[in-house]
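Comment thread on ticket #2218

A.B. wrote:
> Attaching the input chain for the structure job we discussed in standup.
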Amino acid sequence: NSGAYSTSSNTAAKPTKKATKRASVSNKDMGSSANQPIVI
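C.D. wrote:
> Ran it. Output below, let me know if you need it in another format.
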């Protein structure tokens, strides 16, 4: 089970990184909101 979990986590991480970059750019415009963690 842990092996399957890590595989799905690695696969899910690819689109998540793209989404995080987009969110980070938006958060820079929002100022202090950039310090808050991004939950997807």
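A.B. wrote:
> Thanks. Noting for the ticket: The mean pLDDT is 58.
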